[in-house]
Amino acid sequence: MKKYVSLGIMMTLYSGKRYTAPMLAEKYETSVKTIYRAIDTLLEAGMPIRCISGKGGGYEIIKESKIDTSFFTLSELGSFISFVNSTKGTIFADDLTTLEERINSLPESKLKYDLLLETNSVVYDTENWGSTCNNGLINKHIKESILECRKLEIEYLSASSSSAKRIIHPYTIVFKSGVWYLYAYCETRKAFRLFKFTRIKTINKLNCSFERIEIDTHSKPWNKDFHNNLEKIKIKILAHKEIMPEIVDWLGTNNIKIHTQNYRQNSDNICLESEVIFSKGLIHKLMQFGDNITILSPQKLKNEIANECYNIYKTYTN
Q1: pTM listed for this prediction
Q2: To pair with 150 at 20 to 30 A between CA atoms, which of 104, 223, 267, 313?
């Protein structure tokens, strides 16, 4: 854990404040000796830390030091800061004080102005429209267990609305399509699974560890698992031209083929084809468009939508 303590101390000191070893030990829940060793490591690495002894002393960043842009360009650093700031109140909230505060503590300079301008030129908003979900509640246990290779016991709500306790081996946190997931090995399923944060009802860190298997998470193995278990189909749709922007947002411009021979400039409808994943989610997605679209093929998709609509009709008429 030493390297994580050293990184935390570096981030903390860049706030511009002075900290004593006991203060840092309390903040990172470790011993004062560990703080001393971490400070020595940072000094050996060339970190511009001033060590002040005596009453009122402690550790601080040398005010005359400056950000070295030989490794990061302003554009790269600005993009990174924008992304970190977008995670306020989410998964990284407990680990990162905003980099804007550290920049504001720097002496006035053109570099500081250019960096703030670069940071504010791009905004990453990782939340869904109208989202009020706070994923930070389960953040601490998950990240600690990943770093310590500790098993977790969770109570999880499945897609069938049944909840059950699972023992899992946490590997990595995944942010995909506006949703936070935990990629972990499930002892019940004896396979790797993606667990939605919002479906985790309870979480407990266990006192037993697991042996981590080397997995290249940057290759996105969850994508392969997803596609291997689902069927791709080609669909043909007759869509009202007013909802075409929504369909393009959903399927993407390059994944749509428009049948020009079936489309007239004065017509209200456009005939198009695309390739999609056949699933319950697809049926619900198409139903969102109501009578603004007509599914022309395949027949099994038409049947599934008709059945779903009939079941809804029966629910409300009864």
Answers
A1: 0.53
A2: 223
